[in-house]
Structures are given as C-alpha cells and as structure tokens.
TrEMBL record:
Keywords: ATP-binding, Nucleotide-binding, Transport. The keyword ATP-binding applies. This is ABC-2 type transport system ATP-binding protein. The keyword Transferase does not apply. The chain holds residues 5 to 237 of 310 of the full protein. It comes from Thermosporothrix hazakensis.
Amino acid sequence: KVVSNALHAQQLGKRYGAHWALRNCNIQLPRGCIAGLVGNNGAGKTTLLHLAAGLLRPSTGSIEVLGTPSHNMAMLLPHIGFVAQECSLYRQFTVSETLIAGRKLNPTWDESLARSLVDRFKLPLKQTIGKLSGGQQALVAIIMALAKDPELLLLDEPFSNIDPLAKHEIGKVIMELAFERSLTILISSHVLADLEALCDYLIILAASQVRLADSIEHIMEQHKLLIGPSESF
Ligand code: ATP
C-alpha cells in the first residue's frame, strides 16, 4: 500500500476531564517533510505528539501514522522515534551502556550513525546520563531516536536546553537525514525562530486548535497573493 501521509489527523480531539487540550484538528503531513509544531505553552503540542506516538488515545476523531491507526503500537513502535520533553533515559546508565541498550532493543539500529553522532557532539561515553547537562541528555535522547532509523521522528521541544551551536549542528543532522533517508520529522517548539530555517511544513496550534497546517511553499504563495509581489512596494 502506498501511503503518502506520514500523519493524518481527522477531527482529532483530546480531553483531560473537562478540559479540551486539542479540538477538531485536521492535519495531513506529507512523508519526507520536516514539520515545525509551534504554539504557546499549553497550546496542545505535547498532547498532539503523544497522540502521534500512540501514548494517548483520541477522545474524538482519528489519527493515522504511516497509514496505521496510532494506537497500533506493536506495528508502529519500530518505525517511530520519539524524544519526550523530559529526559526518559536511565540516569544510572553510562552513555555507552545507553547506546548498547539501544542496539539490543532495536533491530534497525544504525551503530555507525550513533557512534559518529556521539563523536560529533563530543559526548563522554563513560559518563552516566544523570551526570550529563540537560543539553547533553537531550542530545543522547536525539541520537538514540535517530539511530533507531525510524520513518517518523517526533521531537518534543528538543531545543529548549541546547546551546545555539549544538542546536545548529542538530538542525544540520536532521536535514541531512531527512534528505538521505526520506525521514519525516515533527518538531515542537514555542519559538518559531528555532524552526523556520529547518522546516518545510508548519503546524501552528493556538488555544487547542490548529490555526495553520501547510507547506512553507504554499504559505509563501498565499502570502504573495495577499500582499502582492514585492515589486509593487
Ligand atoms: P508546553 O509548551 O507548556 O509543554 P503544550 O503546548 O505542549 O505546552 P500540552 O502539554 O499538550 O501543551 O497541554 C495542553 C493543555 O492540556 C494544557 O492546558 C495542559 O494543562 C493540559 N494537560 C496536559 N496534560 C494533562 C493531563 N494529563 N491532565 C490534565 N490536563 C492536562
């Protein structure tokens, strides 16, 4: 079956008790794009990523990931790399032990990619995760998710703890891999500037609703139609 959308949400909603964290979301994210998920605190970004990762069930509507309902975790787990906002690595493991566990748990593990990224970011292999800085922990989590060689990578606010140089390097790695491996990436941030150089698709959430979900190319075209070509200024 040919599946052109990496993610397809239809009338997707999620309620926590009486509070709607997401309402009526319609998104069709094409495969192979790098999408930015932007919104203020509490807009519903983490909720959408957790729904996509199959960690939450929708309250209304549906969400398909790589052509499969996202609650079908057994089917999707090997194909999704998910980096949570909080560090989800074992704090007492060393970086090296963490990578060995990744290799053992993931049949598609790319050892040479993992090693080259550890070198690129100068991560100390013998140090325990708990003693790394927040930014270094985030880098290890991103490396773990990338080395799994997923088809869809979900990153929840990966840049919030990372210094500008590492941010730039991670951006470069993400663009290289998206290009080389047709990887689809969904990255959340509350700072649009962190994502604009990286993304070719943008999803804007505000007050639990999708305000915009479109390719940057299409957004630019619409913008030109609205304001006219720059020569007219
Ligand atoms: P942030 O940038 O602060 O992480 P976000 O855009 O990721 O925010 P979510 O974490 O998805 O937003 O939260 C959306 C809304 O749902 C918020 O109002 C939040 O308080 C609420 N919420 C999230 N998780 C729960 C939960 N388990 N129980 C109750 N309310 C929740």
